[in-house]
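Budget justification aside, the reviewers requested a transparent look at the raw inputs and outputs of the sequence design task funded under Objective 1. We therefore reproduce one unedited record. The lines immediately below are the structure tokens for a 421-residue chain.
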């Protein structure tokens, strides 16, 4: 049973219109990774959390120094600045610390024509709040903020601390969370309110960004048989990668069974040639390789490199001129917290006690900050409003009812987890 004393007060204290307004304020900041907006969103959190009376600790991250460290999780955009922001609601002592962590960076809007309105002007359509970052994951950041606010406003004295953390650079590697764990941030449990449709996600597959350089031999297209087309030489490589994906998904962890492909291998960009009537002498393809739960990134990289090497060995030209594999950008290891961890079960019970659908528990097929937190010894689960399918898409949206439900559950769970006098 969940002890409801204190919980009723805190639920009453959740400001529904306020948290929805907070999502809108965050969406209005165009915080694409590597832009000034990314810093602006971090400074926004710093200011509003200070104004709310939390103990704010914020500093400029030394990006050059951090990115030189061996454990650096990668970066795919130019960035010389980043800001770390944490806010503490101190407890009276003797209780566990709960970390609520969310990223404020968003991916670019893509083709603006695919949007029905400006991506950074939040708008409403019924229960939908639409805008870039609404789902991933400004709704979650607003929910964790307003959960802590409700506890403070209800005057409940928790024994343990609540720590809010806003991070940037999540979408292209996770430098923000890496900076916090390197600075010694710790907690007894962490909830990351990424869009999980209010399910519990205690594990993530990883994702490794790679680049392939497929060589050819240029010649005039009228005498193409005397050249070697890098595009044609990519075909057996692509087939080898498709076979590799199938093999790597033959047996997957039960937590990943709901996904048609638990550990996807996908080519995202292909560039070749510079003239229509020239046989292309180079093809560059970029993609991402999924990392299985409990598999090391080193093992996954070796698996792809071996598959490419075998395909090259089977081709006369590629045997002499092998494809070069490079690993660059985001290198997301997989990660997991034991799904049977007591706090995860408790979070699901609190959510159901408030009258919501009891959450399902499963692993996510994407990489996220979870693996950095688990790697730093902080048991972590993702639980937040929004469907991950809406993330990164045009007219990205979140259901405001789920934002409010998440805020209530986070507030109630914090009271239950941290204890109160
Ligand atoms: Zn996200």
């Amino acid at each position: 049973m969940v002890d409801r004393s204190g919980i009723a007060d805190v639920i009453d204290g959740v400001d529904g219109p306020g948290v929805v307004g907070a999502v809108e304020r965050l969406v209005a900041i165009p915080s694409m990774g590597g832009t000034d907006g990314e810093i602006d969103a971090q400074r926004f959190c710093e200011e509003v959390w200070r104004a709310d009376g939390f103990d704010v600790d914020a500093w400029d991250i030394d990006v050059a120094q951090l990115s030189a460290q061996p454990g650096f999780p990668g970066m795919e955009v130019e960035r010389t600045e980043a800001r770390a922001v944490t806010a503490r609601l101190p407890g009276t002592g003797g209780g566990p610390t709960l970390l609520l962590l969310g990223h404020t960076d968003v991916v670019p809007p893509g083709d603006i024509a695919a949007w029905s309105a400006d991506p950074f002007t939040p708008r409403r359509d019924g229960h939908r709040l639409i805008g870039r970052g609404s789902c991933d994951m400004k709704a979650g950041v607003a929910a964790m903020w307003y959960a802590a606010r409700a506890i403070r406003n209800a005057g409940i004295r928790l024994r343990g601390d609540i720590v809010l953390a806003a991070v940037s650079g999540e979408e292209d590697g996770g430098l923000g969370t890496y900076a916090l764990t390197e600075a010694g941030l710790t907690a007894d449990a962490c909830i990351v309110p990424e869009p999980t449709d209010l399910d519990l996600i205690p594990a993530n597959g990883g994702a490794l960004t790679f680049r392939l350089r497929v060589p050819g031999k240029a010649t005039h297209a009228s005498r193409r048989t005397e050249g070697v087309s890098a595009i044609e030489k990519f075909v057996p490589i692509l087939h080898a990668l498709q076979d590799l994906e199938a093999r790597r998904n033959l047996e997957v962890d039960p937590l990943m069974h709901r996904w048609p492909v638990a550990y996807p291998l996908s080519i995202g960009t292909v560039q070749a040639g510079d003239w229509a009537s020239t046989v292309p002498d180079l093809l560059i393809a970029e993609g991402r390789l999924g990392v299985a739960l409990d598999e090391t990134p080193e093992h996954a990289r070796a698996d792809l490199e071996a598959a490419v090497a075998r395909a090259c060995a089977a081709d006369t030209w590629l045997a002499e001129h092998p494809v070069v594999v490079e690993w660059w950008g985001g290198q997301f290891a997989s990660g997991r917290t034991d799904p049977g961890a007591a706090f995860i079960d408790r979070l699901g019970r609190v959510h159901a006690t408030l009258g919501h659908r009891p959450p399902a528990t499963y692993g996510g097929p994407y990489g996220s900050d979870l693996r950095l937190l688990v790697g730093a010894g902080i048991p972590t689960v993702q639980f937040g409003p929004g469907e991950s399918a809406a993330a990164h898409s045009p007219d990205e949206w979140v259901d405001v009812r789920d934002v409010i439900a998440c805020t209530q559950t986070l507030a109630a769970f914090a009271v239950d987890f941290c204890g109160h006098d």
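Residues 7-204+334-418 form a domain with the Aminopeptidase fold (CATH 3.40.630.10). The chain is about 35% helix and 20% strand. Computational costs for records of this kind are itemized in the attached budget.
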